[in-house]
From TrEMBL, chain A:
Residues 4-231 form the ABC transporter domain. GO terms for molecular function: ATP binding; ATP hydrolysis activity. It comes from the Bacteria. InterPro entries: AAA+_ATPase (IPR003593), ABC_transporter-like_ATP-bd (IPR003439), ABC_transporter-like_CS (IPR017871), P-loop_NTPase (IPR027417). Gene3D superfamilies: P-loop containing nucleotide triphosphate hydrolases (3.40.50.300). It comes from Nonomuraea soli. Keywords: ATP-binding, Nucleotide-binding, Translocase, Transport. This is Iron complex transport system ATP-binding protein. Pfam families: ABC_tran. CDD domains: ABC_Iron-Siderophores_B12_Hemin (cd03214). SUPFAM superfamilies: P-loop containing nucleoside triphosphate hydrolases.
UniProtKB/TrEMBL annotation, chain B:
The keyword Cell membrane applies. Pfam families: FecCD (PF01032). This is Iron complex transport system permease protein. Signal peptide: none annotated. Keywords: Cell membrane, Membrane, Transmembrane, Transmembrane helix, Transport. It comes from Nonomuraea soli. Belongs to the binding-protein-dependent transport system permease family. FecCD subfamily. It is a multi-pass membrane protein. GO terms for cellular component: plasma membrane. Coiled coil: none annotated. It comes from the Bacteria. InterPro entries: ABC_BtuC-like, ABC_transptr_permease_BtuC. Gene3D superfamilies: ABC transporter involved in vitamin B12 uptake, BtuC. Residues 1-20 are annotated as: Disordered.
Amino acid sequence: MGMIDAAGITWRAGRATLLDDVCVEAGEGELVAIVGPNGAGKSSLLAVLAGDVRPDRGSVTIAGAALRGLRPAALARLRAVLPQKVTLAFPFTVAQVVEMGQYGRPYDERTQREVMDATEVAHLAHRAFPTLSGGEQARVSLARVLAQGAPVLLLDEPTAPLDLRHQEQVMGLVRQRARLGDTVVVVLHDLNLAAAYADRIVVMREGRVAADGAPGDVLDAGLLSEVYACPIEVRDNLVLPVRHCDFFPEVRLPLGGPSRTSSSAPAG
Amino acid sequence: MTQQVRGARPDKTAARTDHRAAAGAAGVARSPAASRLLIPALAVLLATLCVVSAGIGAVQVPFDEVLGALTGTRTEHFEVLWAIRFPRVVLALMIGAALAVAGAGMQGVFGNPLAEPGVIGVSSGAAVGAVGAIVLGFSALGGWSITVAAFAGGFVATIAVYALARNGGRTEVVTLVLTGVAVNAVAGAVVGIFTFVADDEELRSITFWSLGSVGGASWAVVAAMAPFALLGLAAMPLFSKALDLLALGERSARHLGVDTERVRIVVIGLAALLTGAGVAAAGIIGFVGLVVPHLIRLVAGPSHRILIPASALAGAGVMLLADLAARMVVIPAELPIGVLTALLGGPFFLWLLRRTRREQGGWA
C-alpha cells in the first residue's frame, strides 16, 4: 500500500461526474505526475487527495490512516498542499507567509531560512506578498508548503507561472524531496517536465485514469494524441505537438473586428 | 563551458549574500520596529488620555487631583470623580477596546477589511436584542439580561451575514456590504416595531440605544458589561495565528492545520460577544471597529498578534477622544457619541471602499 492511496474515487457535482472510479497511489520516495487535458479532473483528484472534498464513493488513506478520520492538525503533519492559485486577504510579508507553514509548532529559524533559500525567495523576505509577480508568489507559496515539513506533498501546477530556470529548479527541488523519502503528487501541464522528473505518470481523461505507468511506457504518441485530441509525436522521451499540420480549423474573427487584422492577413 | 562555470560562481555568491540580508530582513519582518514600539506608545498615550478625560467636563478637575483621587486622596472632587467620571472613562475604554477587537476579529474571519460590526449589521442585531429585552420586559438574568439579549441578537445577525456573504472561503466586498444593508434593514424594521409598541419611558431608552452614548455610565453598567467584554478581549488573542492563516483562504488555512470550522464559529461568537456587550452598555457606536484595525494595519502590518492588542488600546483611546469631543462640542449639552463616530467614520468608510475598489480593479 502506498503512502497515499485513493481507491475507487467517484465524485459528482450536480450532473457532471468529475471523477469516475479513480484509483491512484503514491509510495514513499515516489514522484507521481498527474497530466491530462483541461477539465480531465486533475485538480479534482488533488482536492480529494488533500481532503478538501469528500467523494461520493471511494476512500483515501494516508500513511495507513483513513483521511476522513483525521483532524486538520493531524492531517497537516502528514500532507502539505500547494493550490493552483494563492490569494491573500491582507498584505503579509513574504517572511510572514512562509512562516505560516510552521503553524502549530514552535517557530524554527533554520527551516524558515532553508526553504526560502531553496526556492530563491530570501531576497523578497520583507516584501508584501501581494506586490510580488505571479512567479514570485508561486515560489513563496512553495516555500510555505515546504516549511510545513509534511512527508506527502500535493502540488497543483507548481511550475505554471514560472520561468524556465525556476521550473527546472522547482522540479529539481521536489525530486530531491522524493529522493529523501517524501511522497510527491504533482499536477503538471508540461509533459516534458513530467517525463524528466516523475517516477510515474498518471494520464487523466474525462475524470478517469487513461494510463498509469513509467514515463517511457505512458508517453506514447498514439495514447497522447488521442487523450489530448491533438497530433503529438514522441521522440527520445521528448513530447512534441505536431505543429506543421493544418490540424485546427481556421478561426474566423467575427465581422466588425479590428480592421488591421483583416487587412494585414493577405500580406502574411 | 568554463565560462559558464565562471558565470555561475558570482551568481552563487550573490545568492549567499542575499540570504544573509534576508535573514536580517526576516528578523525585521517578524518584529518590525514600528510594531514593537506601537503597543508601549499606545499604552502611554491611553493612560494620559484617561487622566485628561477624567479631568475635563462640566466641572474642571486639575490633573494632579485626578491622580490623587486614584490613589485614594480625598479632595474636593473625589465624589464626582468616583461616581461619575471614572465609571464613564472605564466604560468608554471597555467599549472602544471591545468594538475595535470585534472589528479586527471579524475582518480576519471574513478575510475582508470592510467587515465591521456596524456595517454588516451585528450592531443593529445586538440593538434588536437589547431593545427587545426592554420592551418585552426580559429580566430573567438580572443586570445581565440586556447584555445577554444584545449578544444573542448580534450573534444571530453575524451568523446570518456569514452564511449569506461567504462564497468559496472568502467574502466579496459587494456581497458583504449588500448583505449588511439587508440585515440592517431588517433589524431597523424590528426596532421600528418595538418603537411602535413601546411606551414613553421605553421610547427614551430605545432612542438612546440607536444613537449611542456613554452618558449613562455607572459602576452598575460597567459591572454588567465587564465579564463579557473581558472574556472577549482575553480570548481573541488566542486566535491570532489562526486568523493570520485565514488570510490565505479557508482551504489553505485548513491545509496548514487550522480547524477552520471551530475557529470561525468561536471568533464570530467572541466578536458578537464584544459587540453585544458594547451595544448593551452604550447603544450602537459605529465605525470604531472599522477605522481602528485599519489604521493599525497601516502602521504595524496585518499580523494579528500585534493587530489585536494594538486595536484594543487604540480603540479605547479613540473612544475616550470621541467621548471627550461629544461632551465638549455642544456644552452644556452632550452629543450622542454614536452620531459623532458615524460622522467621522462614514467618510472614512467611503474612502476605504474607493481604495479597495481601485486595488481590485473595480467590481461588477
